[in-house]
What we know:
Layout: H1 7-36, H2 46-74, H3 79-102, H4 108-133
Helix pairs in contact: 1-2, 1-3, 2-3, 2-4, 3-4
Amino acid sequence: MELLSGGGRAAALWVGLHLLLLLVLSLLVTRQRRKHTVVIGDGGVAELALAQRAFGNATEYVPPALAGLAVMALVAIPPLAIHIAGFLMFVSRVAHAIGISRSEALTFGRGAGMLGTWVAYIFMAVTLLFYAIF
């Protein structure tokens, strides 16, 4: 039960929210597939292709972040640091998903989402390395 105190609970919150985000993005792909009766691929439908990229991009970036959050909790990094990383990652992924699903062009949400994702990655990496070394 000690794992679920402090950092474990913080990580659980952000892992749970990220999993819900992935589910929502998956459902949006399914909705576009049904709407345009496309079984595989994107069928040349721009809206479906964008929904697929929003989901695909999230599945590329979210799992490593969830691993980072889990390890942060395992090595007893303070919950505040885990909340900062989780919040930044979640807000960035939501912004990116909104931006990429609305336009093929570089949008503010897409750009800010990627920048925020990279900042979250760097924050987690530096924090984990600090705790590993000191």
